[in-house]
UniProtKB/TrEMBL annotation:
<dbReference type="Pfam" id="PF03171">
    <property type="entry name" value="2OG-FeII_Oxy"/>
</dbReference>
<keyword id="KW-0560">Oxidoreductase</keyword>
<dbReference type="InterPro" id="IPR044861">
    <property type="entry name" value="IPNS-like_FE2OG_OXY"/>
</dbReference>
<feature type="domain" description="Fe2OG dioxygenase">
    <location>
        <begin position="171"/>
        <end position="274"/>
    </location>
</feature>
<protein>
    <recommendedName>
        <fullName>2-oxoglutarate-dependent ethylene/succinate-forming enzyme</fullName>
        <ecNumber>1.13.12.19</ecNumber>
        <ecNumber>1.14.20.7</ecNumber>
    </recommendedName>
</protein>
<dbReference type="InterPro" id="IPR027443">
    <property type="entry name" value="IPNS-like_sf"/>
</dbReference>
<comment type="subunit">
    <text>Monomer.</text>
</comment>
<keyword id="KW-0266">Ethylene biosynthesis</keyword>
<keyword id="KW-0479">Metal-binding</keyword>
<comment type="similarity">
    <text>Belongs to the iron/ascorbate-dependent oxidoreductase family.</text>
</comment>
<dbReference type="InterPro" id="IPR050231">
    <property type="entry name" value="Iron_ascorbate_oxido_reductase"/>
</dbReference>
<keyword id="KW-0408">Iron</keyword>
<dbReference type="InterPro" id="IPR026992">
    <property type="entry name" value="DIOX_N"/>
</dbReference>
<dbReference type="GO" id="GO:0102276">
    <property type="term" value="F:2-oxoglutarate oxygenase/decarboxylase (ethylene-forming) activity"/>
</dbReference>
<dbReference type="Pfam" id="PF14226">
    <property type="entry name" value="DIOX_N"/>
</dbReference>
<dbReference type="GO" id="GO:0046872">
    <property type="term" value="F:metal ion binding"/>
</dbReference>
<dbReference type="InterPro" id="IPR005123">
    <property type="entry name" value="Oxoglu/Fe-dep_dioxygenase_dom"/>
</dbReference>
């Protein structure tokens, strides 16, 4: 089989539990075989997606100096605008041909965790566009709820209590990101990709992609296959933290984006990551005598910070001015 599974998640929102375990079973199989699948019948409306896409076109269309007013490389807690070539997902290739906007769980300047200087904590840095903060803060919450619903199904599949992930996703460090991939120019080095081959760092990623195409996923034989846009769906994939948590029962699969030719591409991943203090220790149902834990225990924040430093030069260099 060489096409990614498409899972109808409507039963996860029904009042009776009859279809629930069947969806959990399908997700379990998809996470073991692929680490990637599509979901359909999720609660995010087409109207919401259209509003976000419209906002993305307005923001990325601004002059670069204006976008750099919320430069992510000048942020202590990784929020704001990332210009082209800020991120290098595949260290063997040139920096990615994309620009980004990142937001997270909003914490005001006077929140005790912000005052204590906890990493990745602080206020969101939104552009000065009318209606933007309301739209994006609402969307962040809705994506968080959708991720928690999927994680309840994963809890069922992994044999932990159904609230296991809900408890660990309170005040999460999940990131909602908007990405603009400018069209590939013929002069562009063929080596430079929209997003270089990588695995995601967190637990699960829920990705909206527009109709331009270009996302590719590696199958078990190491071949790149297309993950084409399918209207009304999100692409969901497992990240490295969940692979560790599940002792590699679930795969975090390499993927990449080939820059679009002649058209702009917009995508919007939501990277679901737990509360920073969460202990990431092999789940009880994922180990036995023959299958010992493969990874040492870590915490969510220690793990995420080590991974960010690999792909963002600015996070390895001198500390940025506070913002
Ligand atoms: O833009 C896409 O389709 C995928 C982006 C991605 O893989 C990432 O940002 O981690
Ligand atoms: Fe990714």
């Amino acid at each position: 089989m060489n096409t990614l599974p498409i899972i109808d998640i409507a039963p996860l929102f029904a009042s009776e539990e009859t279809g629930w375990h069947e969806v959990a079973r399908q997700i379990d199989t998809a996470c073991r075989d692929w680490g990637f699948f599509y979901i359909r019948n999720h609660p995010i409306s087409a109207e919401r997606i259209a509003q976000l896409k419209d906002a993305a076109e307005r923001f990325f269309g601004l002059p670069v100096e204006q976008k750099l007013q919320i430069d992510i490389t000048k942020s202590t807690h990784h929020r704001g605008y990332g210009a082209v070539a800020t991120e290098q997902l595949d260290p063997a290739k040139p920096s990615d041909l994309k620009e980004t906007f990142d937001m997270g769980f909003h914490m005001p300047h006077d929140h005790p965790d912000v005052l204590a200087g906890k990493p990745l904590r602080g206020p969101n840095r939104h552009p000065d566009i009318e209606g933007w903060p309301t739209l994006f803060e609402q969307h962040y919450q809705d994506m968080h709820s959708l991720a928690c619903t999927l994680l309840r199904a994963l809890a069922d599949a992994l044999g932990v209590e159904s609230a296991f992930f809900d408890e660990r996703f309170i005040e999460p460090i999940s990131v909602f990101r908007m990405i603009h991939y400018p069209p590939r120019q013929t002069a562009t080095s063929p080596e430079q990709q929209g997003a270089g081959a990588h695995t995601d760092y967190g637990c699960i990623t829920l990705l909206y992609q527009d109709e331009a195409g270009g996302l590719q996923v590696q199958n078990v034989r190491g071949e790149w296959i297309d993950a084409p846009p399918i209207e009304g769906t999100f692409v969901v994939n497992i990240g490295d933290m969940m692979a560790r948590w599940s002792n590699d029962r679930y795969k975090s699969t390499p993927h990449r984006v080939i820059s679009p030719l002649g058209v702009d591409r917009y995508s919007m991943p939501f990277f679901a990551e737990p509360n920073p203090d969460t202990l990431i220790s092999c789940l009880p149902g994922c180990q036995d005598e023959a299958n010992r834990p493969k990874y040492p225990d870590t915490t969510c924040s220690a793990y995420m910070l080590s991974r960010f430093a690999e792909t963002y030069a600015y996070r390895r260099e001198a500390p940025a001015a506070a913002s």
